[in-house]
Records
---
Amino acid sequence: MLIDSHCHLDFPELNADLAGVLSRMRDNGVTHALTISTTLETFPAVRAVAHAHANVWCSAGVHPDVRRDGREATFEELVEMGSDARVVALGETGLDYYRVEGDTGLQRERFRTHIRAARSLGKPLVIHTRNAAEDTLRLMREEGAGEVGGVMHCFTESWEVAQGAMEQGFHISFSGIVTFKNAKDLKEVARRVPLERMLVETDSPYLAPVPHRGKPNQPAFVKHVAEEIAALRGIAFEEVARATTDNFFRLFRHARPA
Ligand SMILES: [Zn+2]
Ligand SMILES: [Zn+2]
């Protein structure tokens, strides 16, 4: 049993052959997946995948770097989206200062609204952070994100940032990046994060792990992430699979295996 805790099954690269994607998951022992919402407009498609497949759950939220020229998702809207029975988390939310020029105030406001909605629903958060670790941890503290907990997804930050998130009760999720040869610091973080705080993910269709690097990613490939972590820690693959699966169902407690 192995779970992909973060993928985007509504994206065309995966959605065009969803049946094939799901059957390759099964063939590779990947039993469940969490498909992640990124925009208001595509949320119905994300939710539809989770309603159509008993082994897929979804999140509700708007990605930090989605530009909004018109209407921004309100607290009430996020609570309404998040109250669906197949929605087990709010996000992906957070801060991404990588490509942004100028004012990042909208991102911070959006992030705060997601944390408030998550607390109101009692559902955990899926947090994305890039070039913004300090502000991310600060807003999590200011808004009391620790009350619902969650996961720092596709983690690429330092051990200190991992500690800062874990102190607030958060889990750390590793993606295919941990298999990249040049990811030395991240491999060290993957050695140090306690197994009971760890999740694995693909963030597919992006970031295919070694040995599929450069090709479209898919949930079945999460096994390469778990294999790499097992090798780094000198433990059995099964131990990583068991721990990350237990963690998934403990954290996303609204997900019940069928
Ligand atoms: Zn992300
Ligand atoms: Zn994502």
---
Amino acid sequence: MRTIIEPFRIKVVEPIRMTSREERAGLIRDAGYNPFRLKAEHVLIDLLTDSGTGAMSTHQWAGVMEGDESYAGARSFFRFESAVRGIFGHTHVIPTHQGRASERLLCRAIVKAGDVIPGNTHFDTTRANIEDTGAEARDLVIPEGLDPDVEHPFKGNIDLAALERCLAEVGRERVPFVLITVTNNSGGGQPVSMANLRGARAICDRFGVPLLLDAARFAENAYFIKLREDGYAGKTAIEIAREMFSHTDGALMSMKKDAFGNIGGLISINSDEWADKIRTLLILTEGFITYGGLAGRDLEALAVGIQEILDEDYLKYRIASTAYVGRHLSEAGVPLLKPYGGHAIYLNGRAFCDHLPDEQLPGWALSVALYEHVGVRACEIGNVMFGTQDPASGKWRWPALDLVRLAIPRRVYTQSHMDYVVEGIAELYQRRREIRGLRFLHRPAVLPHFTATFEIV
Ligand SMILES: Cc1ncc(COP(=O)(O)O)c(C=O)c1O
């Protein structure tokens, strides 16, 4: 059979409220032309993020009922710790309420002003948390990772020569760790190869610098390795995941992605000294060390989810169903990042809206038009998210890629929902010259995309 079906049945449904184009034009205008400010009930198909938006399984819901809500030493924590350690293999497992809490705790505990954190492409909250300590988040993805049209099996790889140069130039005293994001979300959901992790490990060892993973999508990365890297076709996803983590000293994770969680995160680390510092801060701002800002029922759901995600029927469907969207959009001539990511398809905003200059925020304008046209909400990862303005000259610096991410929630939408998305985007592409440019009305200083407002140029 060529058809790959959703490997689940639907037991509970949530109605989608239909809206008209006219209604949506008013709604997005009232939201300051920022899709983040829309009410979710006004969105037909929500591809804003795959974070925390997945559907939990029957086993996860059963786990919820078993949640032990004891303040300290809850049974749910030990299930969580054992599930995580069985895959990650590090000494200390510290729960947090989500990925950015892990980032904040790690940065506050370990990073100091003037430090440099090299990575492939730091995610926006990771970058913000690093910069908040006065350190620099340095992106060193391979050159292919910056070209939306180049086909490369592991476009998320860190440039090993650049990493070596960076460590030699900055020195180990100012590099507390190297952080590689798998898959590379801000670089198009592209995977990192095992060979690259091995190479990074060897360089880190030479300089005495710890290597950490941002493991938000570790299972999708493992499955890409199985599909694309020599020597891994016969290995299981869990074996590959364990091998990935074996090259590291620790990991951060937003468990709202590859743990099927609606909330949750973790820090998994070998260093006793770091774990001590992190747990002290955890108690200060998140909660006791055996719940870290989560309820016992959340820990149960995550313990089940992080094992379920490694089911190969699921991973095969996940990668194939995302590629299905990419392939059909590509056949309609829509410019997008290739190869297709694991959790998302990334439209090339600049190429889609080639009548709009960078100042008119082509990717953002596309995301607004997409909502207006067919009620699909997507997330710009480009000029608005990463553009910076020089305070002295007022000149803007735009990121290498201006993308619009169609992030696909896990186990939520069916193929017909995706057919609707493809048809809507293909139609909008035919009418792309009607898409109007935007400019900032209000731009917050930190993570502007979440709350900024815009006006039509
Ligand atoms: C790679 C990566 N790291 C970190 C985060 C932050 O996680 P959270 O949203 O749980 O705070 C995200 C969220 O999208 C992510 O994709």
